[in-house]
């Protein structure tokens, strides 16, 4: 069991180290990472979602979608509570209050979970078919998180840190107000699309704001109700979200599903190769899609290789330790209890659905998302070595180092006593 639990970590570490090495060599430059992230989100991830969701779901197991959405919300509320506790009771940079809260509720729910599933499902008590199921479940978790992060304004936690700092800087320089105004900084939130990670691109935000050096000077435009509704739903119109919705529709409409895979409840005339008429689309998705988590892990390693810690506030090590314990020790315990009780006392999870229980436990056991790096960079483009970025780098490095120990322990315990 221990070897089975450690093997996926070794695989993912090797891939991430490769990404870090290529970044140091200049192969995975920031521009290359941005281009590769665009490729992952626009093509690889949608194909992965389609190839796993369509065969995995049908009208009989759609309750699992509700279980995943509910669990995702519970995990994010739990993480939000962790972030608030760390913010209120431990030393943190005064300009990073929202960032530490975001680090609590954002987890790496895509690359790590899918990477683990692809290896672990080859061993007992899982079957090879569970690979598609686990990836499909993880894709839904990922979509839930990104809806909260982008559509519901979770990114504002990070943005407000720099808004408040700009206001404080303005007050300090009030004696120089008569000087010529400096150029405004344009921050386009839709640049989040280009952050090189699976998280940062899954839900795009197409809202452009001008952040002037004088925050008191704002221009308010009247926006119609229809425009507001469009702006609220437009972030959902990106390849992964559209693919997930379309895949769930195809999976539950048997005549459509029969065009891609053989089903027992409905049949259509096969192509000359005795396969469904649109089987070539499914074959393409199955061939290309699995490269998405590999590329995501390489971009993860590249991101870590560019981290730098220049200065940290006194006592911040306490915040790092407390957050790491919350995310990687307490959160998995709560995740195990939540999953087992949900399986025992509700109809949302069948006790024999071991891969769903495993994905739910794994999702609760992940460290903070590396997308925080790119969100912070977007809102503070001129502060390459800011105290906020140094604090975030130290926080993430500590969590991912501890994860090498805690994740195999969680997996081993789950395999022995829960699944």
UniProtKB/TrEMBL annotation:
Entry's Gene Ontology BP terms: transmembrane transport
Residue ranges crossing the lipid bilayer per the database entry: 6-27, 39-57, 63-86, 98-117, 137-158, 287-304, 316-338, 358-382, 394-418
Keywords, comma-separated and alphabetical: Membrane, Transmembrane, Transmembrane helix
Main location: membrane
Membrane topology: Multi-pass membrane protein
Highest taxon of source: Eukaryota
Key word tRNA-binding present: no
Keyword RNA-binding: no
GO cellular component, one term: membrane
Native source species: Terfezia boudieri ATCC MYA-4762
Name of protein: Auxin efflux carrier
One Pfam family per UniProt: Mem_trans
